TrEMBL record:
The keyword Coiled coil does not apply. It comes from the Eukaryota. It comes from Musa troglodytarum (fe'i banana). GO terms for biological process: detection of visible light; regulation of DNA-templated transcription. The lineage of its organism: Eukaryota, Viridiplantae, Streptophyta, Embryophyta, Tracheophyta. Residues 3-73 form the PAS fold domain. InterPro entries: PAS_fold, Phytochrome. Keywords: Receptor. The keyword Nucleus does not apply. Signal peptide: none annotated. Pfam families: PAS. This is PAS fold domain-containing protein.
Amino acid sequence: MPLIDLVEDDSVEVAKKVLQVALRGKEEKNIEIKLKSFSNQDSNSSIILVVNSCCSHDMKDNKVGVCFVGQDVTRQKLMMDKCTCIQSDYVAIVQNPSELIPPK
């Protein structure tokens, strides 16, 4: 299965760019890529990776491949999204001029 078939639609262009840059010999660091999940548990979820890429060379310095090293940050990302949502709700409540909400 080609790598692009594993990548979520909103990350395809990023993945292609990282591959092209790596094949030119330039490393990329801390790039976020979303992969499709084939788990039976959560069909709508994707896996979020932060990846570094580099080009592999043979002994004659010919480019022979691209290497990705990634870290799964799915849970951290979901927690940060929840915290951001809760924070915005809190700010909205505190800044609400309604008298139904008691003052601090």
